[in-house]
Amino acid sequence: MKTSRRKAFTLVELLVVIGIIALLIAILLPTLRRAKESALRAMCMSNHRQLMIAVIMYTSDWKGTLPFCNWGGGDANGVPGWPGWLYWEKYRKTPGGGNSAARYVESDVETGVLWKYLRNRKVYRCPFQNVEDVIYKTSSNIMTSYNMNGATFAYGAGTGTGAVGVRPPAWKIGQMTAFIRDSVCFWETTEAIEFAWNDGSNFPMDSEGLSKRHGAGGSVISCFDGHAEFITLKEFTRLYNVKPGRLWCNPGSRNGDNNGPRR
Questions:
Q1: Is 232 helix (H, G, I), strand (E, B) or coil?
Q2: pLDDT in tens, 50-78
């Protein structure tokens, strides 16, 4: 009587199969990583568009006037400041303590004037960033990955941000687009420097410039005309050397910066 013998893989065959699987994984992983990055970048682009829709809806409610950009925290000699796009000064954990003493939590974003139109904390955060990665609890990075262009506050020029009762300039969205048509409202600020996150807005310069977390040589920006786009670090660097320009777009200054009135 013959006994049947089961055929099995030899060691060489097993090694060949394992080698093929490893090769396929090595080929597919970069593709999968790029696909994931592309999807996250699309989500970030969507966040920017929703932020700009909220800004435009706010301006519709306030006769074209832009929301306060939270420049300097909005405080004035220890007196809680004005409601801003990101948060309201009076809700700080140490009222009147100034930027260095502020203690934020993620839910503080719900006190900002855009929350009425968004109602979703995820819109304020780039999907490439986890809030658990934020080291400095004194920073607005707790609430958002994005910052508004300080041009809407004339970068603090001549406004006396430390003077009680001095209100920010009430620029209108039409003034921004008339000065520079595709001027930039929001960008994803660098995660490398702590002071870049002391409030909710920035100068458009290297030390307060673009995030590198997208891993594609650039990041997403959104503009006062409502559109969002991907911009390379190289192009952003070029733009912060152009005055006036898409980044330096204060309509109250000839050069778009904070160096005095237009002539």
A1: strand
A2: 999 999 999 999 999 999 998 876 654 44
